[in-house]
Amino acid sequence: MTTQIATQLSAASLEALSGVAVPSYDRSRVTAGIVHFGVGGFHRAHQAKVIDDLLSQGVADDWGICGVGVMPSDKRMRDVLEAQDHLYTLVEKHADGELTARVIGSIVDYLYAPDDPEAVIERMADPSIRIVSLTVTEGGYNINQVTGEFQLDDARVAHDLTSDAPETVFGLVVEALRRRRDRGITPFTVMSCDNLQNNGEVARHAFTAFAHAKDADLAAWIDDNVLFPNSMVDRITPVTTDADRAEIARQFGIDDAWPVVCEPFFQWVLQDRFTDGRPPYQDAGVEVVDDVEPYEFIKLRLLNSSHQGLCYFGYLMGYRYAHDATQDPLISEFLLAYMNIDATPTLKPVPGLDIETYKPQLIERFSNPGIRDTVARLCAESSDRIPKWLLPVVRDQLAMPEPHVQFAAAIVASWARYAEGVDEQGEPIDVVDRLKERVMAAAQRYPDDKHGFLRDEELFGNLVDEPVFVEAYDRVLSSLQEVGARETLRMLLAAA
């Protein structure tokens, strides 16, 4: 492999790059039609890539993206993108080790809301902006897991309800919609792209609840006039590492401070409900459909939940990368057993999708050594992920005449064991979770309080009162404590 001298990524340096695709269109002609909150790797591997595809086809010049950051960590993204003229490198990592790279040019601006919330509001109030999209994480919608209600007592939300300088995505977007209403401008579409079932409906509920608390008339107008399409996005996109940056510099000669790495697989299913038009997404491989639900059920209940199935067991068994964990036959067989026995009976058929081919394909994707997705990333923010991805499978199964929840219960038990914060070698685990102190304290009360972890109603509702689930959970958690993760998986698979 030839090592190239790395060139700082910028508009001026594009012509100097070789062996990598660069924007073929005139970026000076591209104007923003989309404002996007949460410009991380996930967005840049999905929505921004699709707009770049369309721009390369000579269409969608008025559908460029203006990114917006609201969190303190977003300031670095603003600085990096500004220094690179909002360009970045998207690298697909193939299972055989091949890398393919392209420079994406669809992001044309970036605003950091804490510096100037007024600028963000006015940008969204501009008639040229017709879509406001979101990847703000599963927990970013501020919904109570048990009640399903928007949490008005959140400190930042409470601030925005009385302030003229909003800090949250809710305050910023609702104020922009108010100005569009008052100025007689068609409202934009709010398009959630987060890993949530019915993510458009979740977004609608969150934004209208905030608006109702601030201005009931505005909330009614939003409810009547703004559309919130559901969507499902699927592409494994691990956190960018320094090793990725070095590899991209060495192989492609690009000095990019924040590239994106991802698997070759790509899927975006989008409900065709837009307030003021949309790009021709279907021309860039997006499946534009009337009903997203069957697709999202399959993705959330098979792919996302299986990620949780491999991560806690994998970590306790000593694995630190998802591909290493999945290549262990015990873990891959466990994941297939969860998918076949617990999850599949809860799914709806999708025309054209062979689910019996899809499930082993997931194992192949998880096993891709090029991705180097970390087990720790998959373990993070479990209190947001497990209730939204895995527990709907449990509840649907419990409603069946003969429920099968043994593998889903095992995943929850493995989370409880992981959340104790010490691995099987006695080494500390860095638990990353918005409810870290609470879940760790509950997990550490075992065995004096066998079901303390399950009694957190915000996370589990009334599952602690479901004997079928609790018996399976108890059996696995006890085994994890006594003989460890590897022997527990052997026990589970032998009993299947």
UniProtKB/TrEMBL annotation:
It is an enzyme of class 1 (oxidoreductase). It comes from Paramicrobacterium agarici. Coiled coil: none annotated. Its EC number is 1.1.1.17. PANTHER family: MANNITOL DEHYDROGENASE 2-RELATED, MANNITOL DEHYDROGENASE DSF1-RELATED. Residues 33-280 form the Mannitol dehydrogenase N-terminal domain. Belongs to the mannitol dehydrogenase family. UxuB subfamily. This is Mannitol-1-phosphate 5-dehydrogenase. One of its GO terms (molecular function) is mannitol-1-phosphate 5-dehydrogenase activity. The lineage of its organism: Bacteria, Bacillati, Actinomycetota, Actinomycetes, Micrococcales.
